[in-house]
Design brief:
It is a single chain. The protein has six helices and five strands; from the N terminus they run βαβαβαβαβαα. By secondary structure, it is α/β, with parallel strands linked by helices. The two termini are 28 Å apart.
Length: 148
């Protein structure tokens, strides 16, 4: 598995925690920044990650900002992306099993580093169930193909 990861200035600390987790799990990753604590624009980091995941250059992506909201909105503008904003372990598992999410967004000002690690670990290790969920995800893919 290959993961693209990025944050804006509001998500640097959690991004470092997740990078450490990825190393512990022997998961290859590329860090797309940012490298400063001064204000930056989250789309400048979310969109490149989303484009690389959509093109298949990375299997999954992880985005972190202050709330996770801005990153998830930006990432979901890219065709083929199903970015889930997650702040609990149940949703981390469910979004992989039921929605086949390919990008995880989290908010550093919402959750702490321990919970962020738990969420990411569950999200990274959970497979898509398919079945009845495949039809639902297929409807989203079909809509994108016809309208975006």
């Amino acid at each position: 598995m290959k993961v693209a990861i990025a944050s804006d200035h509001g998500g640097i600390n959690i991004r470092e925690e997740i990078k450490s987790l990825l190393e512990e799990l022997n998961i290859e990753y590329v860090d797309f920044g940012c490298e400063c604590k001064t204000s930056v624009d989250y789309p400048d980091y979310a969109l490149p990650v989303a484009e690389k995941v959509a093109k298949g250059e990375f299997d999954k992506g992880i985005l972190i900002c202050g709330t996770g909201i801005g990153m998830s909105i930006a990432a979901n503008k890219v065709k083929g992306i199903r970015c889930a904003l997650v702040h609990d372990t149940f949703s981390a598992k469910a979004t992989r099993e039921h929605n086949d999410s390919n990008i995880l967004a989290m908010g550093e000002r919402v959750i702490g580093p321990g919970l962020a690690r738990d969420i990411a670990k569950i999200w990274l290790s959970t497979d898509f169930e398919g079945g009845r969920h495949e039809n639902r995800v297929g409807k989203i893919t079909k809509y994108e193909a016809e309208h975006i």
